[in-house]
Amino acid sequence: MVKIYLDINFHEERILSTLSKHVKIYLDINFYEERILSTLVKVKIYLDINFYEERILSTLAKVNRLLLLIKNCSAA
Length: 76
Known about the structure:
It is built from 1 helix and 3 strands, in the order E-E-E-H. The protein is α+β, with helices and mostly antiparallel strands.
C-alpha cells in the first residue's frame, strides 16, 4: 500500500458525497474555520473540484501519475 500525504487548504468545506471522482488518499485538511485535523487519517473523500482550485487539480494529476508509475514498477 502506498501512503500519499497532501496538505490541502480549503477556502470553505467543499466535500460532497456524490461526485464522479473518488479519491482515496491520506489528507491533513486545514479549514479556515476553526476545525483543523492535525493528525493524518485514512479517509475516502469526494472532492468538489472547481477551476478555482487549479492547484488541487495539478496536485491530484501528479499523484495519479506517481501511483501509476509505482504500480508499473511493482508489477515488473
